[in-house]
Design goal:
Layout lengths: L8 H15 L23 E5 L3 E7 L8 E6 L2 E8 L18 E8 L4 E11 L2 E8 L14
Antiparallel strand pairs: 1-2, 2-7, 3-4, 4-5, 6-7
C-alpha cells in the first residue's frame, strides 16, 4: 500500500535554498546543529581592470603564488590568466585546525575590447600582484581634426 506524503511548501523552499547555496558555494545553515560548517568555493583571484587613453591595466591579486606558476596568454581576442596556488605540505609535528583559504588551479579569461592591440601586452609579477598592460591600437586613438571656417 502506498503511503500518502503530506505536501509541505516550506520543505520545497528549503530544498531550493540548499540548491542555490551549493551553486554559490554556501553551506546550508542548520539551526542547533552545534557545529560550524563552511564550504569553500573554487578560488578565483580578484581582478581590477582600468583604462586610460593609452592602455588597459589589469591587476590580479595572487598571494602565495610563485612567478613560474602564473601564465598570461592572448589568443583569438581573449586574454587568459592561469596558474596554481599550492597547498602547504603537512609536516609531522604540524596539525591544521582550520583551512579556509582556497587552493588549486585557476583560470580567468577576458574578451579583449576592439581597440586593444593584442601584440602589445606586457605582464609584471611582484609581491603577489600580477600587472598586465594592454596597449590600445594606434588607429583607435582619437585624433583632433582642424575644421576651417570660411
Amino acid at each position: 500500500m502506498n503511503a500518502l506524503t503530506r505536501w509541505d511548501p516550506f520543505r520545497e523552499m528549503d530544498e531550493l535554498q540548499r540548491r542555490l547555496g551549493s551553486i554559490f558555494g554556501l553551506a546550508p545553515q542548520r539551526a542547533g546543529a552545534g557545529k560550524e560548517e563552511m564550504t569553500v568555493a573554487q578560488w578565483l583571484p580578484l581582478v581590477d581592470i582600468t583604462e586610460d587613453d593609452k592602455e588597459y591595466l589589469i591587476k590580479a591579486e595572487l598571494p602565495e603564488v610563485k612567478k613560474d606558476e602564473v601564465k598570461v596568454t592572448v589568443e583569438h581576442g581573449v586574454l587568459t590568466l592561469s596558474g596554481e596556488r599550492k597547498f602547504e605540505k603537512e609536516e609531522k609535528n604540524k596539525r591544521f585546525h582550520r583551512v579556509e583559504r582556497s587552493y588549486g588551479s585557476f583560470t580567468r579569461s577576458f574578451t579583449l575590447p576592439d581597440d586593444a592591440d593584442a601584440a602589445k601586452v606586457t605582464a609584471e609579477f611582484k609581491d603577489g600582484l600580477l600587472t598586465v598592460r594592454l596597449a590600445k591600437s594606434e588607429h583607435a586613438q582619437p585624433k583632433a581634426v582642424e575644421v576651417k571656417f570660411s
